[in-house]
Amino acid sequence: MFCKILTDLSSIIRHHGDMDCTKCVSKGCRTSSPCQDNKSDYLAEYQSDDIRSVTAAASSLVDNNRAGHLSRLQEIIEYMRGMGYRKIGVAYCYGMEKDAALLRAQLAAAGFVAHMVSCTVDRVLETEVDLSKSKPVVSCNPLGQAAQLNRLGVEFTLLMGLCLGHDILLQKNLAMDFTTFVVKDRVFRHNPLQALYDTSASTID
Q1: pTM
Q2: pLDDT band of 1, cuts 50, 70, 90
């Protein structure tokens, strides 16, 4: 065991401090001999009220053998209930508006008030976002979505199919906690994990 830990440590050192847990042999963090131990830097934070409420709500989704028995939507609904949320925001891609309407109905049936904000809110044009463009077509507007959700005072926001990059801008500007319901993947029907098993589409030339 000690030799395996040394192997893991030397691997980390060779990579100038980079970490790649997938190459670890000992998996000491799963037993009693982790290759590093920095928990004194942050462990006390788990006892703060806001973090304890999140960890408790998260644990309720997997404890008592519940892991694997709830869909992503069911987990989100139970998490929001555990956190005491009622006023929910959904930032969705206009291309998923029919799906967003179904989500709104599901959230309403579960007792939530859902504020659905499309990526085309405020009708911002591409020429206003990117001055190098010349066609005045409607642009995705993640800053507008964030501003609207902040203004509405929603307690929690779900991201639904936003373009890569736009989701980052939205997350940087939201004033509340959020999670992703749907990740956009136009090739694999919004299941990006599939690219890892389809060698024809896993890399770009």
Answers
A1: 0.85
A2: very low
